[in-house]
Amino acid sequence: MASESLAPSTSNDSEASCVSMVDVLREEEKLEADATAVLGDSDIHNCTYPASYIPRQALYSCLTCNGQAGVCLACSYECHEGHDLCELYTKRNFRCDCGNDKFPDNKCKLYPTKDPFNAQNIYNQNFKGLYCVCVRPYPDPEDEIEDEMIQCVMCEDWYHGRHLGSKDLPIDYEEMVCTGCMQKFDFLWAYNLYSQDTKTIKSEESTAVVDVGGKRKSSNGPEGGDEKSQETSLPTCKGDAKTNNCDTEPAAKKPKVEKSEDSTQQEAANSCLLKQLLNRDVLDRDCATFWKAGWRSKLCVCPNCMEMYKDRGITFVVDESDTVMAYEKRGQDKQTPSSQYDKGLQALSSMDRVQQVEVIQGFNDMKSELSTYLKKFADDGKVVKEEDIREFFSQMEARKRQRTAAPFQYFCK
Q1: Within 10 A of 339 (CB to CB), how many other CB atoms are there?
Q2: Containing H/E element for 291?
Q3: Tell me, what's the pLDDT at 134?
Q4: Alpha helix locations (H) across 203-292?
Q5: Are 188 and 299 in contact (CB under 8 A)?
Q6: By the 8 A CB rule, do 247 and 240 touch?
Q7: How is the chain split among helix, strand and coil, in percent rounded to 5?
Q8: Low-confidence ranges of the chain (pLDDT < 50)
Q9: Distance CA 339, CA 347 (A)
Q10: Residue 390: its pLDDT value, please?
Q11: How far apart are CA 289 and CA 164, in angstroms?
Q12: Paired residues of 291 in beta bridges
């Protein structure tokens, strides 16, 4: 990349520790992209309460006010500035609690008129700053093992990778379902094996049927019957199962036959992909599962399955727009065309070589001084506040003015 030549080369150990402006701009771009992904589809200026239960939004729990409530992004800035906030990343179908009866001493500044409680909100241990089956905070000051945290798509709790029951975590997955949710929604095992271990489904005209709980139970139907192998998509050809010939007679020549309600229900049951998958032997496993992109689109959406999703409160599982990836994509689409990285490179390109070196040297000086300044906070165990950072830059600006004025003071003597 041509812009890399803007940074001076490093030839010794002391210079090797310096950071070029291009490095800074790249880091800024990465941070900007991460922030846009998490916050980009959330409203930074207005409380989201009037929009009711938002399909997905960035949320925070205020441990200073109440460790069992969630506030939206705008309220975290306006109503809870300086408070001990716990970042919850994103949650689905949540309505902002800020200022309701969970906050008796802190009314919402952005939208004061709110119902006492939000009955449909779901809270878990994350709102208290605790995560995983180990029920520990993150980051955990007592945990010396470096481990990534992964969010379960069903319960939306966060888990250490080492506590998911899998020896090796896959690298090509989009979503994870934790061990507890795999036990609670055990019908997912059929899809997990289907998507990872098989290429075809064997459909039998016999025994197994599926109830709304996703369990398998035997029926009194006829046993045996001819098998036919069909592709992973649902069958579209309603032909003769014995001859495997499609009925291609034009619809206009067919006599119209009224279907009874029972026959319609039976036809829906026969077209249920989950029923076909559960005809196989599926063993429960005591571990989390990892799912590749697009797995939700493979779930059965027949009337029986849709009723099952509704009864169990998981209709979101067949909604691709519910995914965090879709949420982040919406945030990225809102991003301004010109990033800080692009603006920085444009500014550097307009400078001559001397100016570039001066800017880079100034940045390295600031980096060194800031590290020294912040070290005393780390040594004393103090929290760095906004006024501390303002004080640092004020002191740095004063020193800069002194250095600039010094030569003129000398010649005036």
Answers
A1: 16
A2: strand 289-291
A3: 96
A4: 261-270, 273-278
A5: no
A6: yes
A7: 40, 10, 45
A8: 1-17, 197-255, 257, 338, 404, 406-413
A9: 12
A10: 79
A11: 9
A12: 175
Give pLDDT, residue 52.
Answer: 96
- Give the pLDDT confidence score for residue 244 in this predicted structure: 35
State how far the Cα of 383 lies from the Cα of 80, in Å rounded to an integer: 17
Tell whether pTM > 0.85.
no
Burial of 60 per CB tally in 10 Å (0-12, 13-18, 19+): buried
Rounded CA-CA distance 65/84 in Å is 9
Q: What length does the chain have? A: 413
Cα–Cα distance between 98 and 209 in angstroms, integer?
47
Q: How many CB atoms lie within 10 A of CB 312?
A: 15
Chain position carrying tokens 């139907």: 221
| Contact between residue 283 and residue 319 where contact means Cβ atoms under 8 Å apart | no
Residue 394 CA, distance from chain mean position: 38
> How far is residue 234's CA from residue 272's CA, in Å, rounded to a whole number?
8
Q: Return the structure tokens found at 149.
A: 């945290």
Which three-class secondary structure state does DSSP give residue 55? strand
CB 287 within 8 A of CB 188: no
